[in-house]
Amino acid sequence: MSDFEISSDPKRLDLDVIHGFLTESYWAQGIPRRVVEKCIAGSICFGVYRGRAQVGFARVVTDGATFGYLADVFILEEFRGRGLSKRLMDAVMAHPGLENLRRFTLVTRDAHSLYERYGFQPIARPERHMEIHRSDIYKSTA
């Protein structure tokens, strides 16, 4: 496991890897590269690296004081099953700009057990939450 490193240095991020994964993901299918670049610029980002090669990613949209939204978490398929998602989440949760947020949210289809380890739970009062969700937005902007 020591041949993997996690860093929040934005200079190390490989946009080709990140965009390549996200554009095929269930949550951001078809996302334009310019949108990925803008997302990264407005977030605290984490990369998982094997040597110089990026093999994983996560980003947090935050005001740095009260709220954070965890998004775009992934480990490339060939590197899964090695505990890297847990190491990535350890780094996210330990980041000094993300400690003690009043509300930290995420949306997941299939990784509930991973996030529950870090204290994430279903929304206690979903009737208070609202959203605008444009699931096909990247089809019209590609």
Throw out a few tags for this protein:
five-stranded mixed sheet, alpha+beta, single chain, 142 residues, 5 helices
Explain what the structure shows.
The protein is α+β, with helices and mostly antiparallel strands. Helix content is 27%, strand content 24%. Strands 1-2-3-4-5 form a five-stranded mixed beta sheet, sandwiched between helices. The longest helix is centred in the middle third of the chain and has 11 residues, at 84-94.
According to DSSP, the number of beta strands is: 5
What does the radius of gyration come to?
15 Å
Q: Distance N terminus to C terminus?
A: 38 Å
- The proportion of residues in beta strands is 15-25%
Structural class, please? alpha+beta
Architecture blueprint of SSEs:
Layout: E1 4-7, H1 15-22, H2 33-41, E2 44-50, E3 53-62, E4 67-75, H3 84-94, E5 103-106, H4 112-116, H5 137-141
